[in-house]
Write a structure and sequence with these properties.
By secondary structure, the chain is mainly β. The protein is built from 5 helices and 18 strands. It has a single domain, classed as Porin (Beta Barrel), CATH 2.40.160.40. The strands form 3 sheets. The chain has a 14-stranded antiparallel β-barrel. A two-stranded antiparallel ribbon has the order 1-7.
Length: 327
């Protein structure tokens, strides 16, 4: 049976940080912690006590390159025992994530539900928490067959535009955080957000095209330190995929008076990051806190590797609404 190859096979081999990363990667990954680790809590949940989140991310890689990777995420997360007092028997988080990712002729779209049980390691007195979370979803993997050609040098496929297959997906994670003092502390977590290794096959009238999905292993460590007015939030995201280089992504964010923030970072894949953002209402009213806050953030990354093809910068926009609904 004839098999197809992508006309942009090199493009696929280096997609997402040039290191075989199959799941979407993010510059401001703080806004997508629960996708990276189903057991995670958002930093604002841990240290600023917001409990309901609604947010969106748009990421465009390699600006100016045709068919470059794009990612869109919509997420919702809530601490259940603050919303429904029938959950007072436990500390629980639940959420929903919608994600769409496209790279050239291949892409996927998925919906994930998440549930995390949070154990208070200090007997309800607060201070140290261990969260164990799982997510489960359905994912559509797709390929635009009209962009494929025979490995024998034939023409692109005719008569078909796209093919898709559907598979369930599951993930799990463990997350620990400790409050050292008021609004200060640290966290650490490990996760496998894509636990199923899949060999996907897309069949057409002329043949078949296959893709392999592999497990991802992630680690997170970070904290929230500083004064009431100026906070420092260092984080490290460790990524491991079989048969791919180990990657570390380190960032430092400085937030001023819950009004604005500035951050920078660097990954071992030789990509530098810069980000900034504002909390408009707090900025206008001089930092006075509200029950709800809207955050708007912009991130930019640029690769500095001295090997392989040269790709362009990466842009990312994040919008998040946070609410303290504990009353």
């Amino acid at each position: 049976m004839k098999k197809f190859i992508l006309q942009i096979i090199l493009f696929v081999l280096v997609v997402a940080d040039l290191h075989a990363q199959q799941l979407p990667t993010f510059t401001r990954y703080h806004e997508n912690l629960t996708f990276i680790n189903p057991g995670a809590l958002y930093i604002d949940n841990m240290f600023d006590k917001y409990s309901l989140y609604l947010g969106a991310t748009y990421r465009y890689q390699w600006v100016g390159l045709k068919d470059a990777p794009t990612t869109q995420v919509v997420r919702f997360d809530n601490r259940l025992n603050d919303y429904d007092k029938s959950f007072d028997w436990c500390l629980c988080n639940a959420g929903l994530t919608l994600i769409n990712d496209q790279t050239g002729p291949t892409g996927f779209m998925g919906i994930y539900g998440r549930f995390a049980y949070i154990a208070d390691m200090t007997g309800r007195s607060g201070g140290k928490y261990l969260s164990i979370g799982i997510n489960a979803g359905m994912v559509q993997y797709r390929v635009k067959t009209s962009s494929l050609s025979f490995n024998t040098g034939g023409d692109p496929t005719q008569g078909e535009n796209s093919k898709s297959v559907y598979y369930p997906d599951f993930g799990g994670g463990v997350f620990f955080y400790s409050e050292l003092s008021s609004n200060q502390g640290f966290f650490v977590g490990v996760s496998v957000p894509q636990t199923l290794g899949l060999n996907l096959t897309f069949r057409t009238d002329d043949g078949s095209f296959g893709m392999k999905r592999t497990q991802h292993f992630y680690g997170l460590v970070g904290g929230n330190f500083g004064l009431d007015v100026l906070k420092f939030r260092p984080t490290i995201w460790a990524k491991y995929l079989p048969n791919a280089p180990f990657n570390l992504d380190a960032n430092l964010i400085m937030q001023y008076n819950k009004q604005a923030w500035l951050g920078f970072g660097f990954a071992t894949s030789q990509v530098a990051h810069l980000e900034f953002g504002i909390i408009p209402v707090n900025l206008l009213n001089g930092g006075n806190e509200n029950n709800g806050e809207l955050k708007i953030g912009f991130s930019f990354s640029y690769p500095f590797q001295n090997y392989g093809p040269a790709f362009g910068p990466i842009g990312e926009v994040n919008v998040t609404y946070m609410l303290d609904n504990s009353d």
